[in-house]
Amino acid sequence: MAQILLGKTVADACSEDLIRRVKALKEKGIQPKLMIVRVGEKPEDLSYERGALNRAQRIGVETEVQVFPDTASTDEVLDAITIINEDPTIHGCLIFRPLPKSIDERIICEALSPEKDVDGIGSSSMARVFMNQGSGFAPCTAEAVLAMLKHYKIPISGSRVTVIGRSLVIGKPVSMMLLNENATVTVCHTRTRDLASVAREADIIVACAGKAGMINMDFVCEGQTVIDVGINVNEEGKLVGDVDFDSVEPIVANITPTPRGVGSVTTTMLMQHVVEAAEKI
Question: What's 31-115's CATH class?
Fold first, then answer.
């Protein structure tokens, strides 16, 4: 039986510090505020949004949600980003991605001010992750993965890590952040040959391919740690990860569930970035 790595334990520990910092900001007349921009009604976005709003309320971060229909144009969303950039009461902005094909996502990501890019979507933020240059913040989910590993004292330095997924949202940035912690990282994806055998060679697996249940018992072996970053909605309408938990959990040493895993830590990292942005004023 694996040790279940619950996100709540990590999120609550980080939140206590953030509550104190928000109180100190409020005493100076600064109310940290997050703007959430969502296009459409995707279930996974709504799930993350609920978690973010709940975490913000607990910590004391003010929130506002701006919703566009999935038929929105690039210009419509761009106008909203311009207003957010110019509003001094907004300290951070979360934009749910991927955006619909009717919107040029690259333009939107680059339009957001790096100082308010609290989920690391712009090139300036990416430069900070990949080259230790520029401003902005690391992607929240990638940072949450490292926070989980460190909290549960799972060795990163010298470990072999297989990251299954190559997106700029999680796969690529978490790979670089793990490299910076002296892990030996192999980046795989759904087209990797004999993916299961590659995964079995790892000490740590980070599953972030965005395909429900693709990581099963054939991908794992004893002693491994499995971090499931996937957020998918199955045919029954239930939230599930990229890992087939029931088949993997009896084999590995440590595993995160979905839900109750990385998600709450991700929203806490988001709030941490908003607080940090407010502290820089």
Answer: alpha beta
